[in-house]
Amino acid sequence: MSASKVRFQSRLASGFKRFFSSTEEERLQDEANDPPRPFIEHFIDLRDCIIRCVLAWVVAMVVVAPFSPWIIEALQQPILSSGLHDQGVTVEGLEIGVGFSLFMTTMLWGGTILSLPALLYFIFQFVFPGLRRHERNIVLSTLIAGVVLFLSGVWLCFSFTLRLAVEALMAINTWMNVPVTILQVESYIGFVLKILLAFGLAFQFPLILLVLGWLGLISAQTLKSHRGIAIVLIFTVAMVLTPPDPLSQIIMAVPMCLLYELTIILVRLREKVNAEAME
After folding, report:
1. Cα–Cα distance measured from residue 41 to residue 126, given in angstroms and rounded to the nearest whole number
2. In CA terms, which of 30, 176, 200, 239 is 20 to 30 Å from 275?
3. What DSSP element (H or E) covers 183?
């Protein structure tokens, strides 16, 4: 191993140690900043947290509501980018109440996503007074990483996979001699949302492993030795969650494999920090 690589790993491990561990002085300061309080005060804080979360969610839904038509139009982009619209394929409503149903769906989903940062902030305010500095850093890092991974999965799906999925499914319909030219909008939007959610949740898998490694329940050596099984499992999950075309499966599975390798590196660094702390 080169000297520059050793220095880089040493600096990275030192940074991890400062960020995810605390000194005795910091522990005493945390205890002084959060003295024991009566149960009723914790209950009041919980009540305030719930009220703030509900208000943030309602406000976010009100903000999203005027943009509902644009959101529905954006979700139809895979049809346009795939060229199916030019071939006569359209997305249409077939019931009188479809507009209101789509309005409620986009408002609820959009409001939840838009209010997520505020919801996390209010939850942090309630939980963090009972946590030490390094514990707050761990929780914050995990949640931020989870949000970033979820949005990355959704972006990857919307940018690439959805168009391929729509093309593949329409090609299968044509091959089976049941060509489809009208897509029911509720069914189509539901299909799109399920695929986007599946990608976002699938990208949480490496984060779960990272948390288990952080807690000492899984070692880096275990993750490394079971790499082959993990890759097979990842491709199996991708096969189940994506439409029946190999390219969509690869688009989901390859980033997950890379995240798995990153998880091994981060768990190994955590183990190194723990080993140095015990010396």
Report:
1. 11
2. 30
3. strand 182-184
Residue 38's region, left for phi above 0, alpha for psi from -120 to 50, else beta, is: beta
Ramachandran category for residue 177: left, alpha or beta (phi over 0 → left; psi -120 to 50 → alpha): left
| Rounded Cα gap, residues 132 and 47, in angstroms | 23
Rounded to whole angstroms, how far apart are CA atoms 264 and 122?
A: 32
User: What's the pLDDT tens digit per position in 134-184?
Assistant: 666 677 777 788 888 888 888 888 888 888 888 888 888 888 888 888 888
Whole-angstrom CA distances from 110 to 100, 103, 115, 122 are: 15, 10, 8, 19
* Contact predicate 199/252, CB 8 Å: yes
Residue with tokens 């723990």: 274
Tell whether pTM > 0.85: no
Nearest to 231 by CA among 195, 210, 259: 259
